[in-house]
């Protein structure tokens, strides 16, 4: 690793360590070390901002409550730069050199796939707070658990709404990465169940392919679009559609629309766009602690939390719950206790199957309307009726 890389790591550890109050540093008990990587650079910066601030908030709050089993918590975060090649050595460093007691997850399926290889080998529990790719739970691992509904279920609600509103033809475009491949596969399966015709189902490697894909959509004149990719690619594709003066009757994008800054980034073209979300920062959502979490996160970060923040905070709640229940930091005990949980965090129900997949939580669907993000599915959580342009130009 070059000198600048070590400098980046040092700065992150320094500032996070400084986050712990002086009184806790002087506490009699040895600090409990927790570690993870976060993305301060690269394509995951926007979403990882949410995760690292949620981790910091939970550490602040748990230390004010007296720590975990009386031990103050120290958080160590390293910058993975959104690069999976950095994740492996950094998680190795956390476990073998920093000797952390607990690990937290990075952002996204690609990074979590790599991080969980390391934690599984060392027998460390990881609650994957921001990864929903099916591949994570297809390896027979014992110590990795999901917070979110799997990506293959992301677009169920949207496709249900599309079918109910008489739109018959769809296009599915997806980035060829594990999470997005699974999301697109699920979208195709659910489109079939709802009787929707999929005229285009195509993956892409690079944004260089986007102009051609926009032309394909225009030529087919599809009624609806599912676009599954990480936020930078979503923003680029939306910009090209707007520049081309093209818009299908309805469209949904993964991840990006759920972020609080989506409308500010996209402008008025954002109005009408749907997106899957695992949770929303709406004080009408009746999960315990939601209101306090929203207010506290805004205080700490200056931004409204996205579901990525909620999932990160919820993963810490799960670890805290099982550690208090078992009175232990032993990972075998923690792992067994998580398997027995059927509980609720700030983002909703938590329950996993035998492989560690999340089965208790279901995604919701949001839509941007007049500059505001609204919940439009399911009906019992709806803050506004979904809006469709059902007449073609």
Short description:
This protein has 393 residues and is of the alpha/beta class. It has helices at 3-19, 22-25, 45-64, 84-96, 109-122, 156-164, 178-193, 210-220, 231-243, 262-266, 290-301, 307-326, 331-340; strands at residues 32-38, 73-79, 102-103, 126-128, 144-146, 169-175, 197-204, 224-228, 250-253, 274-277, 343-345, 348-350, 364-369, 372-377. The longest helix has 20 residues, at 45-64.
Provide the helix percentage. Answer: 40-55%
User: For the largest beta sheet, what order do the strands appear in spatially?
Assistant: 7-6-8-9
Using the CA coordinates, give the radius of gyration: 21 Å
- The rough form would be described as globular
The averaged pLDDT comes out at 92
**How many domains is the backbone divided into?**
2
Order of helices and strands: HHEHEHEHEEHEHEHEHEHEHHHEEEE
- CATH topology name of the largest domain: Rossmann fold
How does this model look, in words?
- By secondary structure, this protein is α/β, with parallel strands linked by helices.
- The chain has two domains: 3-150 and 286-350, Response regulator (Rossmann fold, 3-Layer(aba) Sandwich), CATH 3.40.50; 152-281 and 363-381, 3-Layer(aba) Sandwich (Rossmann fold), CATH 3.40.50.2300.
- 42% of the residues lie in helices and 17% in strands.
- It contains 13 helices and 14 strands.
- The protein has helices spanning 3-19, 22-25, 45-64, 84-96, 109-122, 156-164, 178-193, 210-220, 231-243, 262-266, 290-301, 307-326, 331-340; strands spanning 32-38, 73-79, 102-103, 126-128, 144-146, 169-175, 197-204, 224-228, 250-253, 274-277, 343-345, 348-350, 364-369, 372-377.
- The protein has a four-stranded parallel sheet with strand order 7-6-8-9, with helices on both faces. It has a three-stranded parallel sheet with strand order 2-1-3, with helices on both faces. A three-stranded antiparallel sheet has the order 10-13-14.
- Strand 11 and strand 12 form a beta hairpin.
- Helix 3 crosses helix 11 and helix 12 crosses helix 13.
- The protein is globular, with a radius of gyration of 21 Å.
- Mean pLDDT is 92; it is low at 6-11 and 13-27.
């Amino acid at each position: 690793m070059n000198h600048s890389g070590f400098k980046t790591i040092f700065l992150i550890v320094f500032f996070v360590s400084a986050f712990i109050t002086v009184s806790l540093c002087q506490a009699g008990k040895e600090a409990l070390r927790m570690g993870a990587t976060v993305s301060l650079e690269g394509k995951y910066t926007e979403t990882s901002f949410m995760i690292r601030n949620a981790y910091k908030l939970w550490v602040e709050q748990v230390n004010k409550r007296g720590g975990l089993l009386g031990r103050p918590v120290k958080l160590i975060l390293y910058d993975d730069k959104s690069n999976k090649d950095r994740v492996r050595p950094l998680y190795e460093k956390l476990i073998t050199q920093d000797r952390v007691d607990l690990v937290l997850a990075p952002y996204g399926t690609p990074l979590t796939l790599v991080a969980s290889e390391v934690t599984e080998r060392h027998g460390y529990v990881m609650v994957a707070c921001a990864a929903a790719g099916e591949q994570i739970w297809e390896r027979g691992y014992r110590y990795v658990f999901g917070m979110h509904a799997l990506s293959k279920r992301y677009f169920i609600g949207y496709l249900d709404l599309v079918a109910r509103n008489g739109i018959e033809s769809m296009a599915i475009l997806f980035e060829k990465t594990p999470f997005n491949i699974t999301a697109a596969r699920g979208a195709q399966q659910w489109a079939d169940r709802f009787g929707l015709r999929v005229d285009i189902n195509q993956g892409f490697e690079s944004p260089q392919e986007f102009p051609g894909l926009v032309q394909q959509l225009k030529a087919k004149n599809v009624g609806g679009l599912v676009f599954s990719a990480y936020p930078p690619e979503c923003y680029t594709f939306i910009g090209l559609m707007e520049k081309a003066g093209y818009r299908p009757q309805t469209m949904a994008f993964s991840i990006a629309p759920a972020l609080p800054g989506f409308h500010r980034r996209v402008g008025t073209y954002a109005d009408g766009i749907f997106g899957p979300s695992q949770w929303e920062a709406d004080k009408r959502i009746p999960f315990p602690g939601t209101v306090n979490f929203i207010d506290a996160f805004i205080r700490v970060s200056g931004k409204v939390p996205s579901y990525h923040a909620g999932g990160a905070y919820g993963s810490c709640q799960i670890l805290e719950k099982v550690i208090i229940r078992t009175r232990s930091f032993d990972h075998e005990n923690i792992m067994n206790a998580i398997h027995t949980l059927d509980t609720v965090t700030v983002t909703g129900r938590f329950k996993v199957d035998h492989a560690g997949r999340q089965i208790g939580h279901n995604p919701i669907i949001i839509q941007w309307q007049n500059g505001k993000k609204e919940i439009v599915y399911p009906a019992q959580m709806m803050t506004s009726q979904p809006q469709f342009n059902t007449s073609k130009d």
